[in-house]
Write the structure tokens for this entry.
Amino acid sequence: MYLLLVFLPLIGSLSAGFFGRYLGTKGSQIVTTSCLGAASVLSWYAFMEVGISGNTVYIDLFTWIDSEMLHASWGFLFDSLTVIMLITVTTVSSMVHLYSIGYMGEDPHVPRFMSYLSLFTFFMLVLVTGDNYLQMFFGWEGIGLSSYLLISFWYTRIQANKAAIKAMVVNRVGDFGLSLGILAIFYVFNAIDYSTVFATAPAIAGTTFSMFGFEVEKLTVICLLLFVGVCGKSAQIGLHTWLPDAMEGPTPVSALIHAATLVTAGIFLIARSSPLFEYAPTALVVVTFFGAMTAFFAASTGLVQNDLKRVIAYSTCSQLGYMAFACGLSNYSVGIFHLMNHGFFKALLFMSAGAVIHAISDEQDLRRMGGLVQLIPFTYCMMLIGSLALMGFPFLTGFYSKDVIIEVAYAKYSVSGHFAHWFGCMSAFFTAFYSFRLVYLAFLARPNGQKTVIGGAHEVPLSMGIPLIVLSFGSIFWGYLSRDLIIGLGTDFWQNALFVLPQNNLFIESEFIPSYVKLVPTILSFSGAILAIVLNHYYASFLYDATTSPVGLKLFAFLNKKWYFDKLYNELINKPLLSFGYFVSFRGMDKGLVEMLGPYGAVSSFSSLMKKTSKLQTGFIYHYAFIMLVGIVFLLAFTSLWSGLQSYLFIDNRLLFIYAGILLFYTASVSRV
């Protein structure tokens, strides 16, 4: 059953990919959606057997690599952390597949699209079920490949291709760090399987090795290298620039990438490697600071975005920051709980956004919407539920995880903890503001679009509506139903899947912080939501005047241009590298030195020399006699002087051929010039 759970998406992907021409559009949709639906049912059964009953399952399929000390097998580990990820990935992915039946129904390449979606899910399942770092890395690279294929699915669009290439290149930077981390793990532990590495981590804690002339702690270096990979996949500040541009793909792709698969892989890696991070406190502080800055940066940037999907994309980046700094505070269970909750309401938000775009002729600019609440009330309800869950409205799913993250940050009583707490509180305010700004501009404001577009708005078909209803139930009830099981005080749900040192456990302290501190995130969320409605409805002219004032314009440009990260990267990194690549690497080395000294240069030089030499064939016998005479004189002179040259210049006989070749090559080069 467990192997079938993992390989069902692959079966669906291969069926639609290789036999889509015979299955047709409907056949491909039915096969892939059925496989994902069956995998989703099996994952919930695995959740009951592994998570609820506490029966960890390990499957050693066969040996992959067995070379001296390196041993890696195709093994599958199903523990509490794995099954939590499984139900999130398969449930959201099956809903995305069902949603795609209606959303992509008119596309001529539906079999290819469904095949890519299922392939994406398969690689994610390989990533979360692997029992060693190498198999995890295989799934890690697989979802990178699948994201490239899906973002550039409409490959005739230039922006889609540029976004896919950007996602691939930025992720390669993070993947390079991750691969170095895995190599460092093998160097330190002589193993890459989880059981061996985690069991011996306490013995390695505190030990050092020499790196670039400095003595550094082994586990700190390993964890920081792993975190570089996390920054790439989970879009932490610095390597986040690809995430908003990934919106160029179809909306179901955005829902799958942002809710359950690609971006959650980094958070899963931190949680899986908790036995390493717990013995590397410096790395935990770095993760906390980066996560808090990511949450604040993305939330502030989302305030001024006008693209419907881009606003939701920045909210994803912000929520990933929450998950990262929760893990940095050693609250891995809370981070994973928020990851799961976020998967439900973020998929709901993206699919609702797709329903809006589908209803008004592919319009995505919020400034050209408005008045849709009367035309598509069902979609409005779904978008409102998702936005309320995102802002942490009391007793909805997001409330039960985001508020706990902010509380445990305060309970840390350290610089990193308070930094994360206050940045998390400000991010909560910004999140509520841009969420309700989106709802107001799209549904409640006066219509600003073309009459034919707004008037032709229509509700989604049943195949798109059912996933929205299912995800709305998850966005409303899942947090309440699962809170005590997953993050309740004293729960034994996680068993040995997560490891936290006793001094890093903050659950008890977070229960006894002042009540007003607990109310701060909720008050800020309500303030942000109310302020967004009031400002956009009653004081639109004030907002315009504020953003066109000298100071306001600079602040607006700073936020709208995403803190100028792209500009800085283009000016300081991309342009110098491209200039070096063309003028030095390509024109100076490849087309210059390499070609001149390589086979092409040698052939060209000797061809030119032969052309020059062929001119000596004049047909006059006295010319030939003169050449023979000069040759004989040169040969006699050279042989008579050779012994003297050897004694004075230390010339070796074995070098004669090389000297002759250099002489001919130089002569030919001069003749070419």
Observations:
- The CA atoms of residues 174 and 229 lie 4 Å apart.
